[in-house]
């Protein structure tokens, strides 16, 4: 990675997104992170000592205008865009038979529409730099779970990754789907806590995988990375 590399991460103030931002900054990159919670963004910047290579951008990953504004602000601040990481997402605890439909719309919009909006807004800049799109999916996007709507949204992300790759590969833009198993992040807060068996990856381990994909040399396109903690059976 060169010191001029610029990455935009949605949902980047906590969990996997924040861990990836830290690693990229440590490598000399410049990073913009988005998030809906302004206080959390401010705390993240404060924890890092407000580095000059960090740009925090309040906004909803499922809002077209906010996503387009985040891309424009990143390019305006740093002059280019090399990578986008569609990380924003969350799950709800129940299935389609006994869940609360009032909770579904926001999840579907964030998990499915959000990555599509980021691709749409970022593609012109990424074509210029022959950059990379990283989509954070899930093992749930490969393994069915009975009635699980969150899993259905991640199946959509799995499909989005491949159909986007087919769209942009001739332009020299790479597409990587990172599909983690269980990870120790705030994701579990909405689900009532992590599984009791404590078989979890860390956000830092996932961030290592994201950075590895981003750092692949020109002409190399790593497309799908399914990453489970050892001992997770499904």
What count of structural domains? 1
The succession of helices and strands, N to C, reads EHEHEHEHEHEEEHE
Could you say which overall geometry the principal axes of the C-alpha atoms support? globular
What average pLDDT do the residues reach? Answer: 93
Structural class: alpha/beta
Question: Which percent band covers the strand fraction?
Answer: 15-25%
Q: Given the structure, what is the number of helices?
A: 6
CATH class: Alpha Beta
Tell me about this structure.
By secondary structure, this protein is α/β, with parallel strands linked by helices. The protein has one domain: Rossmann fold, CATH 3.40.50.720. The chain has six helices and nine strands; from the N terminus they run βαβαβαβαβαβββαβ. It has helices spanning 15-26, 38-47, 64-78, 104-129, 149-168, 203-214, and strands at residues 6-9, 30-35, 54-58, 83-86, 132-136, 174-180, 183-184, 201-202, 224-227. The strands form two sheets. The protein has a seven-stranded parallel sheet with strand order 3-2-1-4-5-6-9, with helices on both faces. Strand 1 (6-9), helix 1 (15-26) and strand 2 form a beta-alpha-beta unit. Helix 3 (64-78) packs parallel to helix 4 (104-129) and helix 4 (104-129) runs parallel beside helix 5 (149-168). The longest helix has 26 residues, at 104-129. The mean pLDDT is 93.
């Amino acid at each position: 990675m060169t010191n001029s590399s610029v990455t935009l991460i949605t949902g980047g103030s906590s969990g996997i997104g924040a861990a990836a931002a830290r690693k990229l900054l440590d490598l000399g990159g410049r990073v913009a992170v988005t998030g809906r919670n302004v206080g959390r963004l401010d705390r993240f910047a404060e924890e890092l000592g407000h580095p000059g290579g960090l740009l925090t951008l309040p906004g909803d990953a499922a809002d077209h205008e906010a996503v387009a504004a985040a891309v424009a602000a990143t390019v305006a601040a740093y002059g280019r865009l090399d990578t986008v990481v569609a990380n924003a997402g969350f799950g709800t605890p129940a299935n389609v038979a006994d869940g609360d439909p009032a909770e579904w719309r926001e999840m579907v919009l964030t998990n499915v529409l959000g990555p599509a909006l980021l691709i749409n807004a970022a593609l012109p800049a990424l074509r210029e730099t022959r950059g990379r799109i990283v989509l954070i999916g899930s093992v749930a996007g490969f393994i069915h779970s009975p009635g699980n709507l969150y899993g259905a949204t991640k199946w959509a992300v799995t499909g989005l990754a491949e159909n986007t790759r087919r769209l942009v590969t001739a332009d020299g833009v790479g597409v990587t789907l990172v599909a983690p198993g269980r990870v120790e992040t705030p994701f579990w807060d909405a689900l009532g806590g992590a599984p009791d068996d404590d078989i979890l990856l860390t956000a830092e381990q996932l961030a290592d995988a994201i950075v590895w994909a981003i750092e692949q040399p020109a002409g190399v396109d790593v497309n799908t990375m399914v990453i489970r903690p050892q001992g997770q059976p499904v």
